[in-house]
Specification:
This protein has 59 residues and is mostly helical. Helices cover 80% and strands 0% of the residues. The longest helix is centred in the first third of the chain and has 27 residues, at 3-29. The model has no long low-confidence stretch (mean pLDDT 85).
C-alpha cells in the first residue's frame, strides 16, 4: 500500500465530509429553495465512492 496515496485519500475524505456537512447546513437554512435530495445524495455518493476506490482500494 502506498502510504502517500493513502494519506492524500484521508485528507480528501475529510475535506469531502466537511464540504458535505457545510452544504447540508446551508441547504437546511435556505428558505424558498427546493433541492432534489435524491440527486444531491447520488452526486455526493458518486464522489465518495470514487475517492474510496482511487485512494483506499487503490484501483
Amino acid at each position: 500500500m502506498d502510504v502517500g496515496k493513502f494519506l492524500w485519500g484521508v485528507v480528501l475524505a475529510i475535506l469531502f465530509l466537511c464540504l458535505f456537512g457545510a452544504f447540508i447546513r446551508r441547504a437546511s437554512h435556505a428558505h424558498g429553495v427546493k433541492y432534489n435530495w435524491l440527486g444531491v445524495l447520488l452526486s455526493f455518493s458518486t464522489i465518495g465512492l470514487a475517492l474510496y476506490l482511487v485512494f483506499f482500494r487503490q484501483l
